[in-house]
Amino acid sequence: MALAKWVEPREPTSRPRARGLFVWARSYRGSHNKGAKPRDRRIKITQVNQGASKMSDHEMEKLRHSAAHVMAEAVLKLFPDAKFGIGPAIDNGFYYDFDLPRALSPEDLEQISERMKASIQAKKTFEREVVSRQEAMQIFGDQPYKLELLQEMPPDETISVYRHGEFVDLCRGPHVEHTGELRWDSFALLSIAGAYWRGDENRPMLQRIYGTVWRNKQELRAHLEHLEEVQRRDHRRVGRELDLFSTHEEAGPGLIYWHPKGGRIREIIEDFWRKRHREGGYELLYTPHIGRSWLWETSGHLDFFQEGMFPPMDVDGQDYYLKPMNCPFHIMIYNTDVRSYRELPLRWAELGTVYRYERSGVLHGLLRVRGLTQDDAHIICTPDQIEDEILGVLRFSLQLWHDLGFEDIQAYLATRPEKAVGDDAMWEQALGSLRKALEAEEIPYEIDEGGGAFYGPKIDLKINDALGREWQMTTIQFDFNEPERFDMTYTGADGQEHRPYMVHRALLGALERFFGVLIEHYGGAFPVWFAPVQVRLIPIADRHAAYAKQVGERLRAAGLRIEMDDSSNRMNAKIREAQLAKIPYMLVIGDREVEDETVSVRLRTNENLGAMSVDAFLERANDLVARRANHEL
RNA sequence: GCCCACGUAGCUCAGGCGGUAGAGCACAUUCUUGGUAAGAAUGAGGUCAUGGGUUCAAGUCCCAUCGUGGGCUCCA
């Protein structure tokens, strides 16, 4: 992820931040904004709705696209001068872009909705008509965006328009038979958003209305409930409720403050991560946070990535930059010595905090920030070793995800873009080893043709969370560029100098972002092994506090993270609070427990296990921690 | 960055057409000592994001700035 580096300076003036620059920018394929490509189809329906729709994708798409037309019809009635952009079907719904004389308000959505219902009840027929280019130009004479689309269509393309009622749209179709196939109670307009015409920030900003449409009322309700669930799990909300992290306007946006409880989770995951890396043959590095411009000139960052970097600071007349990536620092360490093929492969990892200038409008909670800690590593090896190394990284990554409770993973294999460094043979070998690794692990993958960085091909892993949403997290990238630029070498068995292969990889991506996904995946109910507080002791009355404290000390000594609620609240209130804090275990202690030297165990699932000895409880909890159980309590 | 919306107590939010602020939760104190999701009373808390402007008078209207949120190539 974060390794996706400088991009080809393809169109430096108009679109300086083209694709590939920030892999993670587009990684959330949410309910209504992403995922047109066919490869997304199979995961687009969220859990809640799975099975709810018996319609094929194709039929649903027709329905959604037709809904877009009906909405456009309603907008036309309200704004006779409206100019129309495009209105496609998308995952779970549709949108349409309009150029309108004034800004839309939520009240407008109600009106538009009402008009749509009227149109649906009128059962207007969708009529397809093939027209000549001339006719089309005439029909859409006052529709500049449609005319632009027309002009771009290849000369031999069949041009069709669809009409229903008074509305006519340039459209390939297909559509449902008539508007009555939509149901007045099965669609909803969700939001208004700005959207550049054709996604180009140099072109006019249109107003986009997003809507969702379903086959019936029940499906719509299920979808709306799903959206509510997404909101309930929003990491910004849960982060505040559970006191995990914060950001501060006064202190700079996009910078994350980890509170004690968030810090605990991070500490546990980092410890686990380090342990795994040591076992996996990695060495851990620590490198500086800033570096002189020489470093970034040499690496090429100043040529290709400067916009993503914070401006330089002047130190004794020298420019220093906050690091946006760790790789040049690792290379500096590599180059401190003459390297032999005998010491390769080197696997060097670092939890390296980097800083990137993100435009203000794209910052988003933990998911898009300006200061982030990558779980970065660089593997430096000989061409002979590359295949094993890639397979090793892939397995390593999958195991890590498994241990963290994510099982549903797929991959994208990005191949050589038009302009690229490195010769064809290198690309072919690199790509071959990536592909082989994916096939060896039997991971479903799609080829992202030409989607590689200019400096090398890559594998990106996408992780599906508990709500069926897809997140791009892991990236494994070849780099044919930096070894060259920094003149990295090793001495081969032949006594000659050779250029090593270098692979960048980030598995969790960035700890901040990973934390955000983790929070949403578990909805704040973290597994026992990394729950910030595992046990809350709940003495019923003050006279039970001494025994509770004793129990607490035993649990603490056994390695559990505990809290004691010795407030003056009633037991019910204490339970409620522990429940809301999503603490796995509530140990209720009253007269009976003191008498029998037991604890009463209540789970955050509302399940009550009844009284058991402290030893029995410890055994249960420690077992789950040791196994890193992700769902059992 | 751009479009739109928003910024009122720690949190979630009320505050017609301008007349110097209110609730619930949280917090503090006191009472209550309880058996599996909220016991009660009292109290403290706000330069209404910041800076300008209009006005006799500005959370309220205007402008700017900062921040937050929804979006910004699913292709007729």
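qc> The longest strand of chain A covers residues 371-381.
qc> done
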